[in-house]
Amino acid sequence: MAEPVKVPDNGAGEHARGLFLVLEGGEGVGKTTQWTRLADTLRAVGHDVVAVREPGGTAAGDAIRALLLDPASELAPESEALLFAASRAQLVRDVVIPALGRGAVVLVDRFLLSTYAYQGAGRGLAESSLRAVNTLATQGVAPDLTLLLSVPAEVAQARLEVRGPADRMEQEDASFHQRVREAFDAALAADWQAAHPEIGPVMAIDADRPVDVVTVRCLEALVAQWPVRFASAATAALSAL
Ligand code: Z5A
User: Fold this and answer.
1) Which helix H or strand E contains 216, and what residues bound it?
2) pLDDT at 157
3) Structurally, how many domains does the chain consist of?
């Protein structure tokens, strides 16, 4: 059982700085669905929300994304890791840091934890190498909170089957995706989080529920950490159910 997440108090008060929030999990857990819904819900109650996805979120990042996900791309694991880091570097410099500086909520669909799960556990690259490259990419900016969505593997598979053709990463075999899932699960442990301050706190969200219910669970997780900032968004989402 994972320890409850404690987000460190940055000492600046709830509204004095931006917040960096990340949605993570294996493919098909519903991250992108919740990313859209959370951004819409928060904007509807007046939050300045910058919602971006990785890889991507900048012109260079979108070009890198196309290369990374194209089934025709033949990439060595090291090239793949560097390309994800390059997209991240551009996103952090051009989007994340300016948005946090003006006090916005930055909501990112995947971030560094995906690199540890896919390029680390999935591809077998050393975490120390991934950390070094990504220290350059993130400039030390770490998420304030990651919501890690999870569903049983067969549920994710069923959701993906109704979508279009698999991209380059989705085409990997079942053992690759099993290692990825195990890496995400490992990130819920308090000792893992203590050893990975660059990831920040990670909180589990059971995403094997109807879409509306998962949205409320995500908002409840935000309210638990920042009650003043997010209470009105949670109330609005609950009253819309
Ligand atoms: N990657 C990496 O290797 N290293 C990195 O550092 C980074 C990323 C940052 C990005 O692909 C790929 O890059 C990803 C990891 C890798 N690849 N893999 N494999 P992407 O952005 O195209 O895709 P994704 O991030 O994997 O997301 P996804 O496949 O689109 O899944 P999702 O966002 O979790 O799910 P969804 O699109 O919201 O929903 C999937 C379907 O389920 C859809 O039809 C929904 O309507 C449905 N759905 C969603 N929620 C529910 C609920 N609650 N109930 C029922 N049905 C639902």
Assistant:
1) helix 211-225
2) 86
3) 1
The per-residue pLDDT for 37 is: 96
Percent above pLDDT 90 for the chain: 79
Cα 148 to ligand 1 centroid, rounded to whole Å: 12
Tell me, yes or no, if the pTM score tops 0.85. yes
Q: What is the dihedral of CA 49, 39, 142, 11, to 10 degrees?
A: 60
What residues make up the domain containing 105?
Answer: 19-239
Per-residue model confidence (pLDDT) at position 4: 42
Q: What is the CATH number of the domain that holds 101?
A: 3.40.50.300
Does residue 14 register a pLDDT over 60? no
HSE-CB of 123 using CA atoms within 13 angstroms: 20
Pocket-testing residue among 22, 23, 31, ligand 1, by greatest number of atoms within 8 A of Cβ: 31
pLDDT at 232 over 90: no
CA of 159 from ligand 1 middle (Å) equals 10
Beta bridge partners of 107: 21, 51
Q: What is the number of the ligand 1 atom nearest to the C-alpha of 110?
A: 9
Position in ligand 1 atom list of the atom nearest CA 172: 19
Q: Residue 4 falls within a domain, yes or no?
A: no
C-alpha 177 to ligand 1 mean position (Å): 13
Mutate which of 159, 168, 170, 211 for ligand 1? The one with the most ligand atoms within 8 Å of its CB, which is 159
Does ligand 1 lie within 6 Å of residue 163's CB atom? Answer: yes
Q: Cis (ω within 30 of 0) for the bond into 143? A: no
